[in-house]
Specification:
The complex is a heterotrimer of chains A (353), B (260) and C (299). Chain A has 353 residues and is of the alpha+beta class. Chain A has 8 helices and 20 strands. Chain B is an all-alpha fold and 260 residues long. Classes of the chains: A alpha+beta (353), B mainly alpha (260), C mainly alpha (299). The structure holds adenosine-5'-diphosphate and magnesium ion.
Chain lengths: 353, 260, 299
């Protein structure tokens, strides 16, 4: 039995339908990310869970209780906003205490709980600061503590890191994940940053135009995208055109080279054009020991990205990128050079439409 | 439910504002017994005192605006450019006229610049005119300064100045040819408010014994029945025109003035 | 901030050139001179004059001359009118601004309301008095309507336009719009996220207002209250045009005094004016004090 269930959730603003039939079952203690481009409806779904927007259809059930029509203050949910949204007229202590105070908790209980929360985010020493006296990262941690203080059933975070510097973004996301594990709180995290989603989620929902395109673990999403949109949105993807030679054996032709996929390809006539996709790390420079799936191409450019070298190659009209791990002895392929590329066969994906 | 309250608050509020406007318009049209007519307006427009005081106030308003621009634009510019730490103090000073009653200020003028003082402005006709312009400039200072300062905020004063200096421009050129054109919109919105203030001002003009529009209206109000209502309608029209133009102008400001 | 450092750096930069700091100050000399001559000195003159005998000696007689029952009554009624119209202006203006900003009314209303507020807040003085006389005066539109159509006689109910309430209602015509003009941006400054954060933390709408929105708005509210008070306290033209000299309020008293109509003792005039400065000064001191207390959370 799942803990948080969204069934057939829909939302229209006037005539425009922003969320279409969104379904999702989240287990207790799970960390779920909603990933998708800006404007695809992530925030809208989150705001429906929080109760800020009334769904046009469908239901929201938490722990067996239907919450679809409850007001935000009747639900037991914590939320962290992108722009921190700390109350500027209260110091850190009062911000964190707010939810307990309006719930009418006794003073000593509030004090103990706030101290506990501040310890959790390592900001005990800043209890007297006002929001304007703190950095963005500190404010967002306070916002997290404020959301967690009333012990909510579900924690919602709407792009909580996108207003922060790159360095803090990474360290804070790890901190959020660690706190989430420690408390075992069911969490929905909205982001448009795929690296963020891949690195901290139990499962990811890739959203596209108001629908959940694919739901799966980070590995599934990255390695086995089920739609062209997911494949394109998550990670870098090379797409090349190939001609199907024999669907049942998985044999196909790219330019003059023939190679076969590990699986058969159904639903396509032989001799038809199909799109084959692979990640930059699924291609490598061909050596003497590599197998038959070798393609030749012309190097367009090569970039040093730190731990990897990324090279752009023209493969018979298809521009693709491939990565090599950096080694001190590595030599960058030069533009204009001809290279032989070997493709890992289990890294090849056939794209649907 | 909430929307119902909102509408109620708004409508009751608006009723309060509309009734006096309807009242004065209605009254201004009732000079002729039993029917509506423009007799009150005809009487007002036929009065030579109306023409004299009205044009006197228009002149005063224009002089005040010119003086205010010459006073405020270079100062606000200079403070932003060279003395930014003075801004809070200057801002405080420019807000003082909202707090010190005009009647107190003009009383001070009368005592300070009387015929036996070191600067006997009240001794001559032109002297009092000058004093009145200065008084009006003081009253409009909060509005003028704010408008210009806000306008300056939207342009990069430092960069513009350095660019002009590198081309060999002097201070007069910089302020007159570069800064002023860039804050025209702000200056104009300050100017319209100033105009509206001066046209309706009563206290200073009355106590300096100047034949301005405000004292004229008061005098007429004490002696006539229908003409004052007509004057009120006219004055409201002037205020409306000034503020309307100001809105129009500041809306222009929001769209970029030049393609960049 | 950045302009400041840039300027300082520039001031020190050009090698071989004098650092002529005083030159910078020359730029504000005209403004300083104007403000000194036509704002500060005239006010100082009043303050000093209030403590001087006609031949320049120090005295407290002028100020103690204020403590007659009629002058004290004039101050009292002025303060009452100013305070009442400021409070009512704040409340009503706030209600109207809140209705438009937060009440879910169509956005199209905002522009016209703000424009109208700009006009109405400047439509003070003599013509405003005429408008109210034509409306609530003895033969005004509303008075006549109530009497002939509904049989309600405002006079019998004790209402008179030349009275405390008459003046207060008239002053509201510029007080309310001023409040709307000042408070609308402040209401816009209330972030939607604050309300949402409060409600998801379990707060009711009333708790949100009491604990978050009201404390955040308080500095603006106090500032506006002080401004509205000063605005009404110094309003001469409306009062004179409305009541002639039948209502005993300070600005009218001072006006008559300056004109030489009534009292004929110039130094009592100083004292009257000084009293006005003291009253608005106290109002603003209270404001600054309250603001400092309510605004610890601001930079
Ligand atoms: N209150 C609203 N009224 C009208 N349209 C809205 C409203 N809120 C969001 N939208 C529209 O819904 C779509 C999805 O928005 P949102 O959920 O905020 O996207 P995301 O968070 O994924 O960037 C956008 O096209 C946005 O313009
Ligand atoms: Mg969003």
């Amino acid at each position: 039995m799942s803990f948080l269930t969204l069934s057939h959730l829909q939302k229209s603003f006037g005539a425009t339908k922003v969320v279409h039939d969104f379904n999702m079952a989240i287990d207790k203690g799970e960390f779920i990310s909603f990933l998708g481009p800006s404007g695809c409806g992530k925030t809208t779904v989150l705001r429906m869970i929080a109760g800020f927007e009334l769904p046009s259809g469908g239901s929201i059930v938490i722990d067996g209780k239907d919450q679809t029509r409850l007001k935000p203050n009747q639900r037991n949910i914590g939320m962290v906003f992108q722009a921190y949204a700390l109350f500027p007229n209260m110091n850190v202590f009062d911000n964190v205490a707010f939810g307990l105070k309006v719930a009418g908790k006794p003073k000593n209980e509030i004090e103990a709980r706030v101290k506990e929360m501040l310890k959790l985010i390592h900001l005990e020493h800043l209890a007297d600061r006002y929001p304007y006296q703190m950095s963005g990262g500190q404010q967002q941690r306070v916002a997290l503590a404020r959301a967690l203080a009333p012990a909510p059933q579900v924690l919602l975070l709407d792009e909580p890191l996108s207003a922060l510097d790159a360095k803090i973004r990474v360290s804070l996301r790890e901190e959020i994940r660690q706190i989430q594990r420690q408390l075992g709180i069911t969490t929905v995290f909205v982001t448009h940053d795929q690296e963020e989603a891949l690195s901290i989620s139990d499962r990811i929902v890739v959203m596209n135009a108001g629908k959940a395109d694919q739901i799966g673990t980070p590995g599934e999403i990255y390695n086995r995208p089920t739609t062209r949109f997911v494949a394109n949105f998550v990670g870098t993807l090379n797409v090349i055109q190939a001609t199907l030679v024999n669907g049942s054996t998985g044999a196909l032709k790219i330019g003059e080279e023939t190679l076969s996929l590990p699986q058969s390809i159904e639903g396509k006539a032989d001799d038809s054009l199909i799109s084959i996709a692979f990640r930059p790390e699924a291609a490598m420079l061909a050596g003497p020991s590599t197998g038959p799936a070798v393609l030749s191409g012309t190097v367009l450019s090569s970039n040093f990205l730190g731990s990897v070298l990324r090279t752009k190659v023209d493969l018979g009209g298809n521009i693709i990128s491939f990565d090599m791990f950096n080694q001190p002895s590595a030599v960058l392929p030069k533009a204009g050079e001809t290279v032989m590329l070997a493709l890992q066969q289990d890294g090849l994906m056939v794209l649907g439409d | 439910m909430k929307r119902l309250w909102a509408w109620a608050a708004l409508i009751i509020g608006l009723l309060y504002f509309i009734l006096p406007l309807v009242g004065m318009t209605n009254f201004s049209l009732k000079m002729r017994r039993g029917e509506y007519s423009f007799d009150a307006y005809a009487k007002v427009f036929a009065d030579s005192r109306f023409h004299e005081t009205f044009s006197y106030s228009v002149w005063m308003a224009l002089l005040t605006i010119i003086f205010g621009v010459f006073l405020v634009v270079p100062t606000a510019y200079w403070v932003r450019l060279k003395l930014p730490f003075l801004r809070p103090y200057i801002e405080f000073i420019t807000l003082l006229p909202l707090v010190i009653p005009a009647i107190v200020i003009v009383f001070g003028y009368i005592r300070l610049y009387n015929t036996s003082s070191w600067l006997p402005l009240t001794g001559s006709y032109v002297g009092t005119d000058i004093l009145l312009v200065f008084g009006y400039a003081t009253l409009s200072l909060p509005y003028m300064y704010r408008a210009v300062d806000t306008g300056l905020r939207t342009i990069d004063v430092t960069t513009l100045t350095e660019a002009a200096q590198s081309l060999g421009a002097g201070w007069v050129t910089i302020i007159g040819r570069i800064i002023l054109p860039n804050v025209t919109v702000a200056v104009m919105s300050g100017a319209f408010v100033t105009f509206a203030i001066v046209m309706g001002e009563f206290t200073m003009a009355a106590l300096l014994n100047k034949p301005a529009f405000g004292p004229y209206m008061q005098l007429l109000g004490a002696n006539r029945a229908y003409e004052p209502a007509a004057l009120a309608v006219i004055a409201f029209g002037i205020t409306w025109a000034c503020l309307g133009l100001m809105q129009l102008v500041s809306r222009l400001q929001k769209t970029p003035q030049r393609p960049v | 901030m950045s302009t400041q450092t840039a300027t300082q750096a520039k001031g020190a930069a050009p090698p071989g050139q004098f650092r002529r700091l005083p030159m910078h100050w020359l730029g504000v000399v005209p403004f300083a001179a104007f403000v000194l001559l036509f704002l500060i000195l005239p006010t100082m003159k009043i303050v000093i004059g209030a403590f001087q005998t006609p031949d320049g000696g120090f005295t407290l007689a002028n100020v103690s001359g204020l403590f007659t029952s009629s002058i004290l009554a004039a101050y009292w009624i002025s303060i009452k009118i100013s305070f009442t119209s400021a409070i009512l202006g704040c409340l009503i203006g706030f209600a109207m601004a809140a209705a438009v900003v937060l009440g879910g009314l169509p956005r199209a209303i905002r522009g016209p309301l703000l424009t109208f507020s700009g006009v109405a807040s400047n439509f003070a003085g003599v013509p405003l008095a005429f408008a109210f006389l034509a409306t609530l005066g003895p033969v005004g539109l509303v008075t006549v309507f109530l009497r002939s159509e509904l049989g309600i006689d405002l006079r019998l109910l004790g209402f008179n336009i030349l009275s405390f309430w008459g003046l207060t209602i008239t002053y509201l015509f510029f007080q309310i719009p001023l409040m709307i003009l000042i408070i609308t941006p402040a209401l816009d400054g209330l972030k939607r996220e604050w309300r949402e954060a409060a409600s998801i933390l379990g707060a009711t709408n009333a708790q949100y207002w009491r604990l978050v929105a009201f404390p955040i708005l308080l500095p603006s509210l106090l500032g506006t209250l002080a401004l509205l008070f000063a605005n009404a306290f110094g309003a001469v033209a409306t009062a004179i045009a409305l009541t002639g000299s039948s209502l005993n309020i300070v600005p009218i008293l001072l006006f008559a005094q300056i004109r030489g109509d009534v009292l004929g003792d110039p130094h009592l005039g100083y004292a009257l004016a000084f009293g006005m400065i003291v009253v608005t000064g106290i109002a603003n001191a209270i404001y600054i004090w309250l603001r400092a207390r309510s605004e610890r959370w601001l930079k």
